[in-house]
Amino acid sequence: MNNQKLILTEHLSKIYKMESTIVAALQDINISIDYNEYVSIMGPSGSGKTTLMSILGCLDSPSSGSFYLDGVDVSGLDDDDLAVIRNHKIGFVFQTFNLMPRANCIKNVELPLIYAGVPADERHERAIKALQNVGLGDRMYHKPTELSGGQRQRVAIARALVNNPSLIFADEPTGNLDTKTGEEIMKLFADLWRNGNSIILVTHEEDIAKHAKRIIKLRDGLVIDDNINPTPIYI
Amino acid sequence: MKIFEIREAFLQAFDSLKSNRMRSFLASLGVIIGISFVLLMGWVLSGLDKAMSDSFKMMGVDVMYVDKFDWAGGKSWKDVRNRPNITLRQAEKLIESLTDVELAVPVARKWQTEIKFAGNTYNGITSQGTYYQFGFTPGGTIEDGRFFTQNEDQFNSNVVCLGYKVAETIFPKGDAVGKEIKIEGRKFLVVGVIKKQGTTFFDFLDNIVYMPLSTFMKTFGKFRRTFSIAVKAGSVENLDNARAEVEGKMRIVRNLAPGEENDFSINETKAFEAQVATIRAIVWSVGIGMTLLSFIVGIIGIVNVMFVSIFERTREIGIRKALGAKKRIILMQIVFEAMILSFLGAVLSFIFTSLIAYLTGTIVIQYVPEVSFLSPYMPLDLLLISSVISIIVGIISGLIPAIRASNFEPVIALRYE
C-alpha cells in the first residue's frame, strides 16, 4: 500500500463505566499520522490525551472503532500480541522516566532487547551505541539514582530508540525537568525527527507542543483542532 | 517458552530477592522450619533403621527361634500362655529330625538372674543355657576368650560366657576372662566375652550370659521349663526352606493333627521389624503432621510476601509490560522468585540440620551414649527429596501472586504510585 499510514483511527472511542456513571474519555477520534511526522497531542488534564496515547501506544484497547498501526489492525489483539507490537514498533518516553532503579544504564536500555530475544552480545553492543547516541557514553555503568534528571531522560530515550521502533511516544517528557534541561531534551527530539523517526509528543503545555510540526488539540474527549504548526521550534 | 526468557526471569527474580534480604529470610522461615522437621525426622528414622538392620545382621538374618512365645506379639497372650511348654525332649527330637538347616541348638532362658562379683550384685541379667554349637552362630561370636566346649557341655562345668554389656558393667577394665563370678549363689568361671550384638534399642542382646545347657538345668532346675530351639538356616536364601521344614517337623514332634493350629511360634528377626514398624509409623505421622502444618505456614508466608512485593513493584511491572514483556515472563519471574526463596530456605535448613547432626554424632554422643545410633551426616536422599519439596512449595506459593501480577493492566500499572 503506497498510501499506508503510520497511524489511522476510525471512530475510535473509549468509554469507562464507573459505578453508575459512564465516562466517555474519547469520542469518535479520526486521525491519521504519516511516517516521519512530528505531532503534538495537546489538551488540559481530563481532555483524554493520556487515554489517546495509551490506545495509540497499544497499552490499552479502544471500546469501539478501529485503529491501524503500521497497516495492522491492532484493535482486536490480545495482551501478548500487543506486548510484541509495543516491543517492536513503539518506544516510550515518560514524564517520570520509568527506569529500573536497581539496574545500571546499559541494563535499562537492554530491557526491550531482552524481551525481543536479542542475543546478549548484540544486546550489549546496541545498548552502548544507543547510549552514545544520546550523549551518555561516559555514564553507561551508572545507576539511574546516580544521574541528573536530564541524564535519566536521555537513558529513557536511548531505551525507547534501541529496538528501532516505528514510533516514539513522549508523554510530558520535560514535565520533571527544569526549563534549560527540558530544552536540551526537546532539541534531542528534533534531532531524532531529522534522523527519520516518527514522534508523538503528549503535553498540556503550549510551549512544549510548539516544538512539533503538527498540533492536535483535544478537549473533553474530542479532537477540537488539528493543524500544521508553521513555526516549530528547533526545526 | 524460550531459554532466554527463563534465564531473564531467573536473573530478575534473584536480583529482586537480593535487594530485600531480611524480608526474604523472614518469608522463607516457614519453609526453613518445615524442611528442618523433615530432615531431622528422616535423620532419626534412618539412624533407627540402620541400628536395627545392624543388630539383625549381628543376630543373624538367617536365624530363627522355635519358641512357645510369639515375639511379635501378634497372637493373643492368653492363647500363647496356655500353649504346652516345649520340653527338652521335644527340642532334641526336632533338632535330630532337621536335615535342611546348618545348625540347630536348644536354648533355655532364665530372666532376671542375679550375678555377684567382688561384693557387688548385678540384677536384670538373662541367663541362657545352650549347646556349645551356639558358639558357631553369629549370636555366639566371641570378642575375648572362647565359647564353652563340648566337654564342658557334657560335664556340666560351671563356665560362663558374658554378653558384651554384662562384661562391660562388671569388668570395666576388660579383664573378665579367667575371673570367677557367682550366679544364683554358684561359682562360675568366665571363659569368654561375646561380641557386641545390639545397639541402643536392642541392648538386651548384650545383657545375657551363656552357659552349658546341662549346667543351666543344674543351676535353675530342669522341670516346668520351656525350651526354644535356635535354628540357623545357613543363608537367607535357605530361610524359606528351613522355615517350612522346621514347621513341619515341629508339628510332628508336637503331635498336631492336620488343620490344628500351631502351638508354637517360629520367631525371626522380622518379628522385631514389625514392632519397629509401628514406632516408625507413629514418628512419621506425628512428623508429617507437624511438617504439613509448617509448610502451610511457609506457603502463607511466601504468598504474603509475594503479594506485598508485586504491589510494591506494580509500576516496575507496568514498565516491563510497556517495553514488551509478555505475561508469561512476568509470571515466571514471580514464580521463580518464590521458588528461589523457598529453595534457599531449604538450603539454610540443610546447613542448620547438618550442623545438628554433625555435633550430635561427634560431640553429644560422648556425653549421651544413647544417641549412638544417629549418624553424624544427613542422608543425601533426604536432602534431594526436601529440595524437591521446597521447590514445589515455592511454585505453589508463587503461582497466585504471579498470575495476579502478569494480569496487571499496563496503563494502570504505569500510573501506580
Structural summary, described in words:
The complex is a heterodimer of chains A (235) and B (417). Chain A is α/β, with parallel strands linked by helices and 235 residues long. Chain A has a single domain, classed as P-loop containing nucleotide triphosphate hydrolases (Rossmann fold, 3-Layer(aba) Sandwich), CATH 3.40.50. Chain A is 33% helix and 27% strand. In chain A, helix 3 (105-116) crosses helix 4 (120-133) and helix 3 (105-116) packs parallel to helix 5. Chain A is globular. Chain B is of the alpha+beta class. Chain B folds into two domains: 3-55 and 274-415, no CATH class; 62-268, no CATH class. Chain B contains 14 helices and ten strands. The longest helix of chain B has 43 residues, at 270-312. Chain B is elongated and about 100 Å long. Chain B starts with a helix and ends with a helix. Chains A and B meet through helix 2 and helix 3 of A and helix 1, helix 11, helix 12 and helix 14 of B.
How do you describe this structure in short?
The complex is a heterodimer of chains A (235) and B (417). Chain A is an alpha/beta fold and 235 residues long.
List the helices and strands and how they pair.
The complex is a heterodimer of chains A (235) and B (417).
Chain A: E1 7-18, E2 21-29, E3 32-33, E4 38-42, H1 49-56, E5 64-69, E6 72-73, H2 79-89, E7 90-93, H3 105-116, H4 120-133, H5 149-161, E8 167-171, H6 179-194, E9 198-203, H7 206-209, E10 214-219, E11 222-228
Parallel strand pairs in A: 4-9, 4-10, 7-8, 8-9
Antiparallel strand pairs in A: 1-2, 1-3, 1-5, 5-6, 10-11
Chain B: H1 3-18, H2 21-27, H3 29-59, E1 63-67, H4 77-81, H5 88-97, E2 103-117, E3 120-130, E4 142-145, H6 150-154, E5 159-162, H7 164-170, E6 180-183, E7 186-194, E8 208-212, H8 213-220, E9 227-232, H9 239-253, E10 265-268, H10 270-312, H11 314-322, H12 327-367, H13 380-406, H14 410-415
Parallel strand pairs in B: 3-8, 5-7
Antiparallel strand pairs in B: 1-9, 1-10, 2-3, 2-6, 2-9, 4-7, 5-8, 6-7
